[in-house]
Design brief:
Blueprint (H helix, E strand, L loop, with lengths): L1 H10 L20 E5 L3 E8 L3 E2 L7 H9 L2 E4 L5 H14 L14 H14 L3 H5 L3 H15 L2 E2 L4 H11 L3 E4 L3 H9 L3 H14 L3 H14 L2 H15 L1 H22 L4 E8 L9 H7 L4 E3 L3
Parallel strand pairs: 2-7, 4-6, 4-7
Antiparallel strand pairs: 1-2, 1-8, 3-5
Helix pairs in contact: 1-6, 1-11, 3-8, 6-9, 10-11, 11-12
Length: about 300
Amino acid sequence: MLKSLLAAALLMLTSAAACAQPHKPRPVFPALYVMRDAHATIYLFGTVHVRPAGADWGGPNAHAALDAASDVWTEIETTPQSDAEGAALAERLGQALPDHPLSSWLTGAQNARLRTLEERLGASPAALERMQAWRAALVLTFLPIVRAGYDPQSGVDRDIDAYGDAHGKHMHGFETIDQQLGFLAHLSPELQRQLLLDAIDEADQGPRAIAEMTRAWERGDVATLERVVLSDMRRGFPQLYQALFKARNDVWVEALSQHMRGAGTEFVAVGAGHLLGRDGLIAQLRARGFNVRRVPA
């Protein structure tokens, strides 16, 4: 269930270190949606949380929509202070109990596979041994992605935050970093162990999987995005899907419904998976009677 791991790994960007090379920008045309009435307009833009350094964060329509908005919403507000707080919180929440180090989650054969992967990735066995299973799984999943040139400091959300701050937009976050990391830290022990085992066995497939996601996002191919981001998780890890997508979407759709009772133009940028599927923001907003349409490329 590699793509389930990727979705979880991309949530925990505050504790990752970047080492990517600059990337020559190329045109991209990710999907953009809009809902409006006589007084309010809300643009809905699905993001990817990591991009090659220097890559464009969105196509012409998304740039124009962001420029027109007075208020900008992202999953969390990203600042140097929030990055530091997130890294410290991930360290604290992800720290193994003294009597339950990472190796105690695994059998002898599984620990041998872990040691082989650590050596291949250049990961520190001592550092991983001090982690909870959920955090180690995410680190093992994310390391090959960073080594392949994807930069957590160049994610779409960060670029949108930076643009908003530079152009006087009113910036808002749906969540705090405490809430985001809490979704992962409170996963059941059984699910944490399964995520760790999948990370050990499938980590090297991460760059190929995220490249597929990235290509689909750049083309605005929402059918492929729904398949690669949501389908595996919904089927194989329903508890993870509930925590990372459905429960959060249910909260956000309430907020968006309230915003449509106001006036002005807002730009909402959240992970692309949150817009899609039967539990996504678009389906839920349409079910409430809002006219949500895709902006033509």
